[in-house]
Amino acid sequence: MFGMLSGAWRYRYFILSSIKTELRLKFIRSKLGGLWLILNPLTQVVIFAFVLSTLLSSKLPGITSRYGYAIYLMAGILGWSLFIEIVTRCLTLFIDNGNVLKKLVFPRITLPLVVSGSASVNNALLLLAILVIFGLLGHLPGSAFVWLPVFMVINIALALGVGLALGVLNVFIRDIGQIVPVALQFVFWLTPIVYTVEVIPEQYRGWLILNPLTPIITSYQRALLYNQAPDWRGLAAVAFVAAGLLAFALMLFRKASPEMVDQL
Amino acid sequence: MSSVLNVEKLGKSYRQWGSEWRRMGSWFMPSIAPREEHWVLKDVSFEIGAGEAVGIVGQNGAGKSTLLKLITGTTRPTEGTVQLSGCVAAILELGMGFNPELTGRQNVYHSAGLLGHSQTDIKRAMPEIEAFAEIGEYFDQPMRTYSSGMQVRVAFSVATAFKPDLLIIDEALSVGDGYFQHKSFGRLRQFRDEGVSFILVTHALGDVRTLCDRVILLDKGRVLKDGLPDEVVDYYNALIAEKENAKLTIEQQREKSGWLVTRSGTGEARVKSLRLLDALSGEELAVAQVGQQVELRLEASIHADIPRLVLGYMIRDKQGHVVWGTNTWHTRQIQENVKCGEAVVFRLPFTCTLGPGSYSVSPALVSSDTHLINNYEWIDNLLVFDVINAQRDIFIGTTWLDGQFLITRQIDGCV
Fold first, then answer.
1. CB distance A262–B106 less than 8 Å?
2. How far apart are CA A143 and CA B4, in angstroms?
């Protein structure tokens, strides 16, 4: 474990320059460049906002603003897009970089670090865009906004734990790469992103707690929409789960590393 | 001499687990054993000293690439150890990690970073990398606009920008145009003079002879021979034929003069005698004069019926470079239906236009233009003779070209 950390530290410049490179690659040769980073999740917001709030006229309890639902959606999507970007990219991380892994020696831990770094930057850009839209809608986030980095860190840890473990297994069992995207769709709908927890009938509500994403996403929504502090107990439990998953994933990664190259 | 690399009892096996669940189980429970093990490298031990250049030869599948991967650390050994002291650079494949959308300069940053160099080091080396690659303003253009030769130039410049203690090169040198090849060989020679150790893996046996101090021959994952270049390369050459001729035997013996005689073959035809004679008097010679008419006379004895018999021979200088070589297949003088018990005498007259020095003759009795199909007998360096220059003006080199100077002078008046 210590070797991993010191390797990552020696390669810190490489990690930073790789993140920069990834960002740069998004801007090169496409007219809208980095705008696509933001347009993608925002279209999702527009579609859900239009379909659900206008057509199905669902309402949010305790919110009078006309745009309440759109803001609620944006908060949820902000958290979700960070999670899904890290998980899906980690899933094929070792397979995509197979050639480099086979030919060069470098601390492998840099790969997931580059992914989390570049996903965080993308997410920060999305956050910036969302804040601009909030401003246009006349909804300025309050003091609870400062908790956002905490949610992001827990979110990244959870995503990295899940993604890394699946990414390692995917090298040996390629079916995982096919199953996970389908499973993630279920997870999306099992997380209160487009709906609120209150919509769920009382007797089933307890099940939502089993989804570790629920406390994270609701924290985003509470902070951005209601300007409320998060439910710290729920969040701490998730942080605990995330740390456990991450430790498990790193152990799996270390055990599998010697054989991984032979399988790529 | 301190050692740069110490490989001890190295082995690598690729495991078959039967099912992926068993494999994953083995990460946590060491008692779960693989169903089948396939050893590609076993019990390999050697040492490389500072400043030593070692060639690794062997047929495809002999385990050369696996050995390099184990030394660089991309794969881990199943057993044994690799001890490295100092910094290792490997040119296994040029241009690893290049992105076509980035410029040459950005790619240099990226791939040098991947090799573990710090930002400041790369920045410092950048002007030199740019100068060595010599691709002008293309250096700041996206790499997709490059020709493959230009990519190679950038890749080689990055790979050798930082002086390592041990440089590993895998067949990567035969790239780029003649000019750049020359330049890159120059850089490698400079490294050698500065005391960098080398591991060179190649099928170009001529390169091995000239560049290496020592050669290791790998066969079926084991070290078959480890020694001086002429010894190992000649042995390897004889070994290639063994694949086709199961009963082939190889013997090696170092003569007092320092020449190594390697004898291999299946023995249907044998060299009974090989002598160098004066073409006019027929007297046997140990020393030939530059420009003398001489003749090689080879007597072959036949021990089985042979449909086709071809004699080939080559003359090598002391460094092992082939000065001349041909065979009766190329001259369309194949002897057909040679019967057991026959004696075949080959007379090979030529003018000795060699430069002064020591030369060897290696004859081969085969059935076509290569010894890979039937190798009846091949003897490296069977006959050794010296050439002296007693009658001509002094010259250097291995060939007497009868070069002349034609000089004219004329008075133009002093201005």
1. no
2. 61
Closest CA to A128 of A16, A67, A17, A37: A37
Kindly report the average pLDDT of chain B as a whole number. 84
Are the Cβ atoms of A11 and B97 closer than 8 angstroms?
Answer: no
**Quick one: CA torsion of A248, A253, A256, A262, rounded to 10 degrees?**
160
Contact B408, B389 (CB under 8 A): no
Phi and psi for A142 in degrees, rounded to 5? Answer: -95, -155
* Domain B1-87+164-227 annotated CATH 3.40.50.300: yes
A17–B113 C-beta distance less than 8 A: yes
Query: Is B96 in the A-facing interface, judged by CB distances under 8 Å?
Result: yes
pLDDT on residue A187: 92
Whether A106 and B115 lie within 8 Å, measured CB to CB: yes
Task: Give me the domain span that covers residue A157.
Answer: 2-263
Between B23 and B392, the more confident residue is B392
The verdict on B74 touching A (C-beta cutoff 8 Å) is yes
Task: Report pLDDT for B100.
Answer: 82
Please report the pLDDT score of residue B263 as a whole number.
84
Question: How many structural domains does chain A have?
Answer: 1
Domain spans of chain B, in order of start: 1-87+164-227, 97-163, 247-388
Total residue count of chain A as it appears in this document? 264
- For B68, the token pair is 């390099």
> Could you tell me if residue A73 is left (phi over 0), alpha (psi between -120 and 50 degrees) or otherwise beta?
alpha
Q: What is the rounded distance in angstroms from the CA atom of residue A77 to the CA atom of residue A130?
A: 10
Q: What confidence score (pLDDT) does residue B161 get?
A: 85
Tokens of B265: 């073959």
Say how far residue A218 (Cα) sits from the centre of its chain.
Answer: 14
In terms of pLDDT, which residue wins out, B295 or A63?
B295
Buried b (16+ CB within 10 A) or exposed e, B54-78: bbbbbbeebbbbbbbbbbbebbebb
How close are the terminal C-alpha atoms of chain A, in Å?
Answer: 23
pLDDT 10s digits, B170-226: 775 666 677 887 788 788 888 888 888 888 887 777 777 777 888 998 888 888 888
Cα four-point dihedral sign A98, A103, A107, A111: negative
> Distance (Å, rounded) from C-alpha A128 to C-alpha A114?
21
Nearest to A17 among B93, B109, B116 (CB): B109
Mean per-residue pLDDT for B143-162?
Answer: 84
Residues in CB range of A152: below 8 A, 6 or more apart = A82, A120, A123
B287-289 and B383-388 strand pairing = parallel
Interface test with A, best of B26, B82, B114 (most A CBs within 10 A): B114
pLDDT (0 to 100) of residue B349: 92
Number of other CB atoms surrounding residue B118 within 10 Å = 15
pLDDT(A204) > 60: yes
Complex ipTM more than 0.90, yes or no: no
How many Å lie between the alpha carbon of B172 and the closest alpha carbon of chain A? Answer: 13
CA distance B151 to B103: 11
Domain boundaries B247-388, CATH class: mainly beta
Q: Single out the residue of B202, B143, B197 nearest to residue B172, CA to CA.
A: B202
The sign of the torsion formed by the CA atoms of B224, B230, B231, B237 equals: positive
